[in-house]
């Protein structure tokens, strides 16, 4: 049996009606859609991490390496153990909570915050191993499960349109339509999106990859040709370095030694007992948000991939759940925040990714990016976010699975779909649906349709918000 036949048999290409080319393109698509995390995660975490003897740039590069390695570990578990086409990396929102709320806001040392993420990861591994996470996710009400995909779709649309500057801030209405005539980013994004949508509508393989790369290249060409100033369509710092020292200077400038972050994590383990109550609250918050963000992402992305069964459950969900648990644990040790499944995985699934080989391609590209870390930053974020708009539109098809004539379905599903984008949180959307479902059922005189577990889940969310608001209000400090 040749190498191709071995790969096809291991990942089940025939079983999932896919092939090597489709899976490879899907992996590249997912990587391009989520590669921004390699740049953004270090920028966020470096706001909270200070190490004697190292400047901010060196710390950012340490975190970059840790981000890549933690992502790769989690993705390889996803590929070889779960055999699912999902990418993982330190989660947006979770990294901001780590930096700005826990470390800067509460005054928790960054070393202790890493220890909290580590403990969260260990708890996840234990709960996943005994099937507790799978059991809890299967308690989600059916309308919530079927609404998650559409909710994530609207969320992706909102994120993508904001990054494209099509949706912008407004002091009265919060958001409004951006001006394509005065914004170079908006104008180029619209052209890039049009190209991507046309290729997708024509069934062109790799339409998302082509759209991202074509838009990024156009941004660089317009900048080099002095049509726009540096920093408008491409990162200013990257452009200046290339202009002054050549493109090879980017590759030669990486700081690979991240051992100071590991030393900080070890130090953090010894500081846990300084204030165990605050530490427990931080672990609880990390745990709760990550648990439901991951659950929502897995269900939503699986819905567009056709992976869910008739009850809206993902078979063997404990396997992909183990991937983020291991990634979170390893990531904390080497110096980064909670690792979770990325909603950008939906871009690769839309391109036809159906097996762990898609994830394997994503993981290999993360590893290869160690060699060209600064070049990843050469892809403007708005170009990557074009994929979110396309995928967001496609994910709206999930609303057809919802029984809009049943008030318990309509209310819980409607809240799940709308709260996600309006609060920029998958877990908040799930909370709205999970809390409202038993209440509406009871109001309809059908409380017997609600299981004890679903009531318990709703109460758990209420308790979580009580803790979260107390922490956010500064009622606790380290």
From TrEMBL:
- Name-wise, this protein is NCS2 family permease
Q: Which PANTHER family match?
A: XANTHINE/URACIL PERMEASE C887.17-RELATED, XANTHINE_URACIL PERMEASE C887.17-RELATED
* Predominant location: membrane
Stored InterPro entries: Azg-like (IPR045018), Azg-like_bact_archaea (IPR026033), NCS2 (IPR006043)
The topology of this chain with respect to the membrane is: Multi-pass membrane protein
Q: Identify the keywords attached in UniProt to this record, alphabetized.
A: Cell membrane, Membrane, Transmembrane, Transmembrane helix, Transport
Q: Where in the cell is it found?
A: Cell membrane
Q: What is the scientific name of the source organism?
A: Natrinema zhouii
Q: Name one Pfam family in it.
A: Xan_ur_permease
**What's the superkingdom here?**
Archaea
Q: Which residues cross the membrane?
A: 20-39, 59-81, 88-106, 112-132, 144-161, 181-201, 208-227, 247-266, 278-301, 355-376, 382-399, 411-435, 455-476
This protein's GO CC annotations: plasma membrane
